[in-house]
């Protein structure tokens, strides 16, 4: 009797600990979340056993908190244990706990720079979603898109294009062809095609994305729109259409900055590319003002001795030498 009562009390304590975890994660109180999850894990091991399904939630929170703190190997250890428990349950690989665990493990490997391991996990995740009796098409589109981008980084362009095209088709079916998720899928496809040298195809995808975003989204600051405009500008600039490229770079700057006043860090590449373009056009003073905006952003983000920072400084010095002498 006393043993059953103690077990019931410990189970209730476990449930209270679990109930507190979402709020701690939402407030980004990672240290507190890890501590509470670790306490829940100890109680759960005592009440349910060391391989019980109930342990996957505290293990997930521990892994997520450790990843946020930059402790990738410790995060991976907790996540791997949770995956092992979930995979042993009936219904694997479609066990409902697995998708989030695979996503977290993939994020850990990606943070550590292990792209091959990240790709393997996304393949397992995609296969698991596809085997479900009622597949979540939005989730399939998301995973196919992420996997396509990773394969694009690995120069596996053919498979990357197939996955990104699938992500686009599925996204259009789920959210609509003129939706923001569709624009993001088009942007991703255009980015991979551009990296593969498929400029015309890339430009078409990016123009479609820009058209959707400017037509359907009234937000003042839009980093996705800015990125699409920047990437399209680099393509048209490479084709010698300098005036169109200048217009796109300026529109990208406006979409990035909005009404916030101070330059956000994301604006730096566009400032530099537009500065290079204006300098080539002979508009040196305008180029210098852009380099002057880009340089402190690079110094703050990357440090004064980073190659990018040194490159901007070199652009600035070269442009200064092109200025006519003062009279």
Automatic annotation (TrEMBL):
**What are the ranges of the TPR repeats?**
183-216, 268-301
Q: Does the keyword Repeat apply?
A: yes
**Keywords, ordered alphabetically:** Repeat, TPR repeat
> What phylogenetic lineage does the species belong to?
Bacteria, Pseudomonadati, Myxococcota, Polyangia, Polyangiales
SUPFAM superfamilies the record matches: TPR-like
* Pfam families registered for this protein in UniProt: TPR_10 (PF13374), TPR_12 (PF13424)
Q: Spell out the protein name for this chain.
A: Tetratricopeptide repeat protein
Q: Which InterPro entries match?
A: TPR-like_helical_dom_sf (IPR011990), TPR_rpt (IPR019734)
């Amino acid at each position: 009797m006393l043993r059953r009562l103690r077990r019931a009390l410990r189970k209730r304590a476990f449930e209270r600990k679990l109930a507190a975890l979402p709020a701690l994660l939402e407030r980004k109180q990672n240290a507190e979340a890890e501590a509470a999850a670790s306490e829940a894990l100890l109680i759960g091991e005592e009440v349910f056993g060391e391989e019980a399904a109930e342990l996957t939630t505290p293990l997930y929170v521990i892994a997520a908190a450790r990843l946020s703190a930059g402790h990738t190997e410790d995060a991976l250890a907790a996540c791997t244990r949770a995956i092992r428990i979930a995979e042993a349950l009936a219904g694997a690989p479609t066990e409902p706990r697995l998708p989030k665990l695979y996503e977290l493990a993939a994020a850990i490997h990606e943070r550590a720079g292990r792209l091959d391991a990240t790709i393997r996990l996304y393949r397992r995740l995609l296969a698991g979603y596809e085997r479900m009796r009622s597949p979540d098409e939005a989730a399939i589109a998301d995973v196919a898109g992420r996997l396509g981008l990773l394969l694009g980084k690995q120069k596996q362009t053919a498979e990357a294009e197939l996955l990104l095209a699938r992500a686009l088709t599925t996204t259009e079916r789920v959210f609509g062809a003129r939706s923001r998720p569709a624009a993001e899928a088009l942007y991703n496809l255009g980015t991979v095609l551009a990296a593969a040298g498929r400029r015309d195809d890339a430009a078409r995808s990016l123009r479609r994305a820009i058209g959707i975003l400017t037509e359907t989204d009234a937000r003042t600051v839009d980093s996705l729109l800015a990125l699409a405009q920047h990437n399209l500008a680099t393509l048209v600039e490479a084709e010698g259409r300098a005036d169109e490229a200048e217009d796109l770079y300026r529109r990208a700057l406006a979409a990035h900055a909005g009404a916030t006043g101070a330059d956000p860090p994301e604006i730096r590449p566009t400032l530099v590319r537009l500065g290079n373009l204006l300098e080539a056009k002979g508009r040196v003073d305008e180029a210098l003002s852009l380099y002057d905006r880009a340089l402190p952003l690079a110094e703050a983000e990357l440090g004064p001795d980073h190659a990018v920072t040194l490159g901007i400084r070199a652009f600035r010095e070269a442009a200064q030498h092109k200025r006519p002498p003062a009279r």
